[in-house]
What we know:
Layout: H1 11-26, E1 37-41, H2 46-57, E2 62-66, H3 78-81, E3 86-89, E4 104-107, H4 114-117, H5 121-128, H6 130-142, E5 145-151, H7 178-198, E6 201-207, E7 210-211, H8 225-235, E8 239-242, E9 248-250, E10 252-253, H9 254-264, E11 275-278, E12 283-285, H10 286-297, E13 303-306, H11 321-326, H12 335-351
Parallel strand pairs: 1-2, 1-4, 2-3, 4-5, 5-6, 6-11, 7-10, 8-13
Antiparallel strand pairs: 9-12
Amino acid sequence: MEGNPLCRIDSTVCSDLAMAINKLREAGLSDVFHGKRFLVSGGAGFLGSWLVDTLYMLGAEKITVVDNLSTGSLDNIRHLLGTGRVELVDKPVEALSPVKGYDYVLHLAARPSPDDYMEHPVETLRASSLGTEVMLESARLSDAVFLLTSTSEVYGHAQVVPTPETYWGYVNPVGPRSCYDEGKRYAEALAMAYMRQYGLDVRISRIFNTYGPRLDWRSPGYGRVVVKFIAQALRGEPLTVHGTGRQTRSFLYVADNIEAHLRLLAPREELRGAIVNIGSSDEITILELAKLVLEITGSASGIVYLPPRPDDPPRRRPDITKARRLLDWKPQTTLQEGLRKTTRWIQNKILLPPK
Ligand code: UDP
């Protein structure tokens, strides 16, 4: 395993990466990515940069990050850019010409925050449609393994909860969330078409709410709930609950998510064409989450109620039976523990002088 310059600047992320890598070692997967070449769209984003750091530590020979830094950040990968093994192509994924020479092509570029994608519906659809096509073509030219990070949003207002991968979804095709939901549904369909028509080795993860360090907590207009609540609590501002707060989500800590993804990328024949929910099965209401954040941060902030977001899914919880069986994986980090780590990470950033 390679040292990571990150460990000199971010002990929280560094120790979580070590934890994920230990789990991979136990699973016999710590060597399989050594010397491999990766094309990663969205590699400067939240999950993308965690994956890039992990692959770097597992000895990847070359990692090309394609990211226009619209919702990602240079801060997430800067520590790797001088190493000679990681490069950044600063453009929207759909503006890339298909490239060859990779062992793995990972398509993570997306705008997953509802507040943000509802402001940028066209860019959101382009990343999932044209962007997916460019990345699939790159995988086809390279004869690479292709990963699409899809989303629980393909299930829409799921009528079956916990939701298994066999559920087809209940989605408003023209609503304000459709740019994300339908974009990802199209991306899944296109990936499966490449598998059926060209025999490409395709793997699809459907990611349920994931949180942790590096999730954008400070840009106005990027409002993922966990980090937004933590930042509000630390600043002594009221926590903004949309609607009644009775809507539910199931929150997975990022290190567990990354471990699941690396297991999904393992060189195993039975993973070709696999579609797997990656998430936590602990469901919680948004109001309960707000109270838990207040308790963990020790904040005296109150709670204010805002109008509900349009088309906000009332319940979301994955059935993770398939991930447990196929990937031999289960979440390790409790919500309390993950919230504490994320709080510490944000607290350190708040205390740091602005650059
Ligand atoms: N939410 C909230 N207050 C906020 C931000 C989000 O109550 O300031 C709620 C939102 O309405 C949704 C849940 O938290 O029910 C999760 O929102 P998020 O943006 O994290 O992602 P989503 O799961 O909706 O994609």
